[in-house]
């Protein structure tokens, strides 16, 4: 069995990745501002002047953060940013939401809602199958009435719309 407190992601790796990401964003800002000119014209600064220097500051701050990450890494080599147990909890939270989005895109939001609520109630909440089914179906029915009938805002229904004759 694996140690749940073992490091899944080190603090150094996360700090270095974020520093590199923000440096990349700063580089994109600088590159984009070159298109508009970064110097001074007859009327003052050109449109890309301030964005270029803001991007330069972002790159400089990112470089400092990257250097500091390497300095701290030499001192605190084993510091964890994310442990296995924390990663498992995050996956238990975001995994079902990702499945909800995927199911909703293909089968409609109401089918996704029923499946998400049912799964969350049974597998994470410990509810009985009958209670979870009743609540998830009722929630979908209430949302259908609320959005489709009362507010007249059609939501994605997928193939159910054609099957049930809902237009």
UniProtKB/TrEMBL annotation:
It comes from the Bacteria. InterPro entries: DUF1468. Coiled coil: none annotated. The keyword Transmembrane helix applies. The keyword Cell membrane does not apply. Residues 18-155 form the DUF1468 domain. Keywords: Membrane, Transmembrane, Transmembrane helix. The chain crosses the membrane at residues 12-34, 49-71, 91-118, 130-151. This is Tripartite tricarboxylate transporter TctB family protein. It comes from Dentiradicibacter hellwigii.
